[in-house]
Specification:
CATH superfamily of the largest domain: Ribonuclease Z/Hydroxyacylglutathione hydrolase-like
Strand order of the largest sheet: 1-2-7-8-9-10-11
Structural class: alpha/beta
Distance between the termini: 69 Å
CATH class of the largest domain: Alpha Beta
CATH architecture of the largest domain: 4-Layer Sandwich
Radius of gyration: 27 Å
Helix content: 25-40%
CATH topology of the largest domain: Metallo-beta-lactamase, Chain A
Number of domains: 2
Strand content: 15-25%
Number of strands: 21
Bound molecules: flavin mononucleotide, fe (ii) ion
Number of helices: 14
């Protein structure tokens, strides 16, 4: 297997000029990269201009410039496009602009502030483009498509229109370094493609669907992403896979219109468990809400994140142990970064012995994740009393009613308020 390829032709006059990073084992702290990665940059030659699309990480600039020099002189470069400004693609940009000062830089509107913050200069000339804009290189047209949040707010894709080659940025990419470069020649990279989607694109699945509506109708021959193999064999199949991955699954199972509430709990002596049962019972008394109850103990490996992604509300119960909620609860809450939760409702409850911090801490975390916490959580000292269990049922019912929109007008008496205050003190 060839380890250091030359600039590689994708179509006549269009070359891959990126860099290989085979030894990388972790990307951006959050991704494992068992097969390393590539930083893909492309050079597109027209009759009266040459474009460079994306650059590479600063550490790999020499490799990139060496390949670029194989196919273009710096004074020929008229156009530089950055599909998004993350440093793995903008790292070599300042040096490229120094070597090709006549070139014009094309970025999206949202990239403007980032450009200043990343390149740390005010002197770079750039032009802002959006869907519908194009650059004529002479016999070759670059068309721009705004695809925000795939995965940065400033993301766009660039199409070499006559050739049907989509430079898609991180979308449809993966961390998989293989010098054979093309998807029909490299090793099996499917796991890497899926992994990349799950960790990078999944939080933005609504934006993924919007982008697919924009991009899928294009007559594409090649998808050329910013990482991993160039997808020249069956490029549409990768778009179809993204559509499958981004499509919500749960409505098919429980029926559109049914709202979903998940109650999670963990409990050492069964106190919080009893409260969880009561929350679930209360919610279940409201028609049109499907209630599911899950014990977080010994649940490692269960697909709770998938369930939460599809759910409308979460209620989380934890005892207070050493002034905190317990680790399985935090593990669950820290696993939600890969999904969108900001449109969901949240609630907390739990048993405690003397200080009972867990409930507030869970509520704060839920709010921090931008869930709405419409009802104050229920705390019960040690074994929950009948009155406390009734409050748990009420919590469940009210949460369910927030989901159905069927909120009862409740008249709260002053004595009830005072009782709540003193139980929370
Ligand atoms: C090791 C340990 C530490 C505890 N720390 C606290 C604490 O810091 N504050 C508090 O309010 N209760 C504390 N408790 C009391 C529990 O919250 C209480 O027993 C509760 O009822 C347990 O509920 P469960 O049966 O749902 O686990 C602690 C209990 C244990 C066993
Ligand atoms: Fe990125
Ligand atoms: Fe990237």
């Amino acid at each position: 297997m060839k380890t250091m390829p030359d600039a590689t032709e994708i179509a006549p006059g269009i070359h891959w000029v990126g860099a290989l990073d085979p030894a990388l084992r972790e990307f951006d702290i959050i991704l494992r990269t068992a097969n390393g990665t590539t930083y893909n940059s492309y050079c597109v030659r027209g009759e009266h201009g040459v474009a460079v699309i994306d650059t590479v990480k600063a550490s790999h600039a020499d490799e990139f410039f060496a390949r670029l020099e194989q196919v273009a002189r710096y004074d020929e470069i008229t156009t530089i496009v950055l599909n998004h400004l993350e440093p793995d693609h903008s790292g070599a940009l300042p040096e490229l602009m120094r070597r090709a000062p006549q070139a014009k830089l094309y970025i999206s509107a949202k990239a403007q502030l980032m450009l200043k913050a990343l390149v740390q200069t005010d002197t770079l000339a750039f032009e802002v483009v959006q869907t519908g804009d194009a650059v004529d290189l002479g016999g070759r047209t670059l068309r721009f498509y705004s695809t925000p949040f795939l995965h940065w707010p400033d993301t766009q894709c660039t199409l070499a229109a006559e050739d049907g080659i989509l430079f898609s940025g991180d979308a449809f990419g993966c961390h998989f370094c293989d010098a054979r470069l093309f998807n029909d020649r490299v090793g099996d990279f499917r796991f890497s493609f899926e992994y990349y989607y799950q960790h990078i694109m999944r939080p933005f699945r609504e934006h993924v669907l919007e982008a697919l509506d924009l991009l899928a109708p294009l007559p594409l021959r090649v998808i050329a992403p910013a990482h991993g193999p160039v997808l020249r064999d069956a490029p549409q199949s990768y778009m179809q896979r993204y559509r499958q991955l981004a499509a919500p699954l749960l409505p098919n199972e429980i029926g559109a219109g049914t709202r979903s509430l998940l109650v999670f709990y963990i409990s050492s002596y069964g106190n919080t468990a009893r409260m969880a049962q009561a929350v679930a019972e209360g919610a279940e008394s409201e028609a049109g809400v499907r209630v599911s109850l899950y014990d977080l103990q010994s649940s490692a490996g269960l697909p709770f994140v998938d369930l939460i992604e599809e759910a409308d509300a979460l209620a989380i119960g934890s005892p207070t142990i050493n002034g905190d909620a317990v680790k399985p609860v935090w593990d669950l809450l820290s696993s939600l970064a890969v999904i969108k939760v900001c449109d969901k409702l949240g609630a907390a409850f739990g048993s405690y012995g003397w200080s009972g911090e867990a409930i507030n801490m869970i509520e704060d975390r839920l709010r921090g994740l931008k869930l709405r916490v419409p009802i104050k959580g229920v705390r019960a000292r040690l074994i929950p009393t009948e009155e406390e269990l009734a409050r748990c049922r009420d919590l469940g019912k009210q949460l369910a009613q927030h989901l159905t929109g069927n909120l009862e007008r409740r008249v709260i008496s002053m004595s009830e308020l005072l009782a709540q205050e003193s139980s929370h003190a």
